[in-house]
Amino acid sequence: MTGVNEIEAIGVHDFDHWIKHKKLTYKLKAMTQYYAAVKIIACGICFSDIHAASGAASRLYHPITVGHEIVGRIVAMSSAAGPKFIFGYRLGIGPQSDSCGQCSRCTDHTENNCEKILTYGTP
Asked: Could you give the 3-state DSSP secondary structure of residue 16?
């Protein structure tokens, strides 16, 4: 994944016209020493995604790309990412996208309970 700085996705630009989705381009965050790049194979859309896309849940930010029940395959990774991750493995991804890595919950390997966790669609 060296040299890849952006990704394309389908998302919503305008809450009032949320059903009319468009192609969006997102800049990738800087890769850390522990990263795995995942090619998405499938992604489910549930009613909480519709609430987010339509602005029914909140209208804090847009554009937004929804979908948080993701299945993909590891297509690139750092050498430090192993042995938990193996090139080519298929995996599932939940809605949490980032944790602080420093609080007691993160250091106890329960990052999903981090108080500073980010979820999909957060700026």
From this structure: helix
Percent of the chain with pLDDT over 90: 14
- Each residue of 1-13: pLDDT tens digit? 445 678 888 888 8
Question: Based on the structure, what is the number of domains in the chain?
Answer: 1
Other C-beta atoms lying within 10 Å of the C-beta of residue 72: 18
CATH code, domain with 43: 3.90.180.10
Gap between the Cα atoms of 43 and 52, Å rounded: 16
Distance, in Å, from the CA atom of 121 to the CA atom of 70, rounded to the nearest integer, reads 14
**Whole-prediction pTM value?**
0.66
Residues spanned by the domain of 13: 6-119
**Looking up tokens 């996705």, which residue turns up?**
9
